[in-house]
Amino acid sequence: MNIYTVSFFGHRYIERGIEIENRLDKLLHNLITQKEYVDFLIGRDGEFDILASAAIKRAINNYAYGNTHFTLVFPYMKAEYRDNEKEYLNYYDEVEVYYRSSQAHPKAAIQIRNRYMIDRSDLVVCCVQHNSGGAYLTLKYAEKQGKKIINISDEQ
Questions:
Q1: CB atoms within 10 A of CB 40
Q2: Burial of 1 (0-12, 13-18, 19+ CB in 10 A)
Q3: How confident is the model at residue 155 (pLDDT cuts 50, 70, 90)?
Q4: To pair with 128 at 20 to 30 A between CA atoms, which of 4, 20, 137, 152?
C-alpha cells in the first residue's frame, strides 16, 4: 500500500480563518480522493491546529473510504489528554506522545515534535502568516529538508 503522509502546523493565532478553512477543505478533498492512503499528522497547540483538525475530520467523514489515518501528536503528555483520553480516541484514530520531545524542556518540545512530524511527511501543509515565531522556524526546517510544502495562507 502506498501511504502518503501529510503533516499540519501553523501559528497559534491566524487571520482570515474562513478563507483558510475553505482552502483546507479543497486540499483535503483532493488528497483523500486522489491518494491510495493518507496518514494525517497534527498537533493541538493553536488556532490553525484546531481549524485543520476540524477540516480533516469533516473531510474524512465526507470523502474517505477507509483510506485515511488521523493522528494527534503531542510534544509531551498533557493533563487535558490524560483526563479525557476516551474523548480524544473517539475523535482521532491515534494519539501519540513523541518520546524525544517529551524529554526536552517544554519551550523546545513543540519545535522538536514539529520536526519529527515533518521528517515523517511527504507533504507539509502550514499556515505561516508572519516571518517570525515557531511556525516560521518549522517552515524553514521543512524547506531545508526539501519537503513539498503548501502554505495554505498563500494559496489562491
A1: 27
A2: exposed
A3: low
A4: 4
| 37 burial via Cβ count (<10 Å: 0-12, 13-18, 19+) | middle
Q: Which residue's C-alpha cell is 483526563?
A: 83
Q: What angle do CA 121, 127, 131 make, to 5 degrees?
A: 110
Is the CB of residue 31 less than 8 Å from the CB of residue 148?
Answer: no
| pLDDT tens column, 110-136 | 999 999 999 999 999 999 998 888 889
| Beta strand pairing call for 3-10 and 68-74 | unpaired
Neighbour count for residue 58 (Cβ, 10 Å): 14
CB neighbours (10 Å) of residue 136?
15
